[in-house]
Amino acid sequence: MAAPRSPLSRLFTVLLAGVLAGLVLAVAALPGNLLLGLTARSALGSYAALPASLKTPATPQRSYLYANDGKTLITTFYDVNRTDVPLSEIAPVMRQAIVAAEDRRFYDHGGADLRGLARALVANVKGGGTEQGGSTLTMQYVRNVLKTDPTRTAEERAAATDPTVGRKIQEIRYASALDKSLGKDEILDRYLNIAYFGSGAYGIAAASQRYFGKPPSQLTLGESAVLAGLVQSPDAYSPISGDKDAALARRSYVLDSMVATNAITAAQAAQAKAEPLALHPTAQPNGCTAVSQGHDDWGYFCDYLRQWWLAQPAFGATVAEREQALRSGGYTVVTSLDPKVQATAQQQATKVYGYDNKRALPIAAVQPGTGRVLAMAVNRHYSLADNPAGQANYPNTVNPLISGGASVDGYQAGSTFKLFTMLAALESGRTLSTGFDAPAKLPTRYPAEGPGSCDGHWCPANANPDWMDGYRMMWDGFGRSVNTYFVWLAEQVGQDKVVQMAQRLGITFRADSDAAFAKNNAANWGSFTLGVAATTPLDLANAYATVAAEGTYCTPVPVVSVTGADGTKVPVGQPSCKRVLDADVARAATDAARCPVGQQSAFGQCNGGTATGVNDILDGRPVAGKTGSSEENSTETFVGFTPQVAVAGIAANPDDPADSVGSAVQTKVIDAVARVIATAVKGQPEKAFVAPSRELAGDARRPVERPAVPERRQDPTTEDPRSALQRWLDRRG
Length: 733
Description:
With 733 residues, the protein is an alpha+beta fold. It contains 30 helices and 19 strands.
């Protein structure tokens, strides 16, 4: 039931009645066709003079995020829950119901129904407890557009519903001008896409989903009558949040009106009235914390996409404008998220550590040659829900544990950084066969005190001397992860060249202390090759993807395509790639990277690896990779890649770097990453790595270079002399 009229409303109707009194008296005596002509001539307005929003409505619409199949919905973004649909996708009974409920003479009048308005004015002046509107669908459409137009000021939007005679006359003028220029179906289509149906649903598509969980093309007669009845008083008649009995009574009114307009028969109306109110309320997800039920792990990818979106000038000049575009622009975003790869990554991350474990295994998967991010998983719920007492960021958090940013600098990735030393060496002219008799401990030129120093200099050691010490080349130095070999190699090349190589491949120094060292003292960053700088699984996976793509670096991107509400493709999200390495250098590094995973190089030089089980999991499919253990096993890392995918996982405690995950978890991390790779390449043709040139492989019989070994040695260390905790504190000032 409509609410009683306010004194202001009654005054408005009396005033308008006075202004139009002469018109009302004339209307009663005029034939219909003459009336229509008079209406058109008296509209005192033209289509050309209409506000732009009435010609091309800028109604806010929600944006949809889909997985890379274009079908799996991740979430939606909106300020106003609305999605426009063409009239052809709205059930005919719904179109008939709205006309019968709101404007029976819709197809007969010229936009403003003067007879209906006169009837309503007379009834309202006489009183009777309820107010009659008299507004046509076209007039209602005008009012809805002007009060929601995002291009108008707040004051202008508020004026669209002012109870003034001038506003009503302007509404009539605009409606008449629209009717002269647009077909009735076009006006009906626009009206159905902007009307408010209650419970947060704007437009028929949102309303159909909100109340009945189906698209508007599938609405039944009874359902259509319910929705059509909501428009007059959305809150009062809402069967979800309002009065169900009132909703049923209003449904009956609409059905009777449809009989009166000959849209349906009395028998059809009776049958529809007898149907129970079968609601299937469906709440439309809004934002990254409202992803599909059971898939809250998708939230981390969603958040990464949102951060990417806010950096794209195509969506606005400022961050605020880009945010508004996402929430009201009606975009269809097909992301790069692969549901199968994501599911495996999430399963493997939670297999290593449960949701309630303070330690985490963030995993990222990237496609070489495009930079498209296929998966981002971690054993956390992406949620703002409170955590149990004493638990900082688990099981719930929205921190970017996989991609980094905000308060997340990343984690030490250990010996995976040896890749950058090898690349810098190859680029400088050295070959894969560069040999060195690697000692158990190596004195360096970098000053250091305390454990791990040799006579006041940093003295890194091999983790397993019996297996690592001795004459090594890049193949087996990388395969067995020989610290002293790579520290020596970095000294020959120049530590600054190694740091620059990492940056070229996309490693970002988010920790202030790391960024300062890289900028001001890279040449003396002796421990860099052992992975003491903080990084993230996403950065690391993309760096290795650059090698997999034979030296082509692609900026990580979370989308495949973005389409505007009008169906136009937005020119964003295409791969942004550039060559940062000579292809032969990348091929040579890949050849050595086959040693750690139990495969053989093109030159037969692999003789042991730290992750040989990967070969079995991939069934011998060409694969490469590298393990990494940081000081005291604070973190354990594995990166693996094929020509089609690169995947990285880092086991760490995001809240406490002093909490060592331990060496025992390394095999689990290796297994987890390898199984994500297996899922990503399943069904794809097997693709071999291209062997490097013999020139870059070199001659394995080259003379051995031996270091000067000091007489006095102390306990070995494989890392920067500072403790992991101290470095963590340094990064945070």
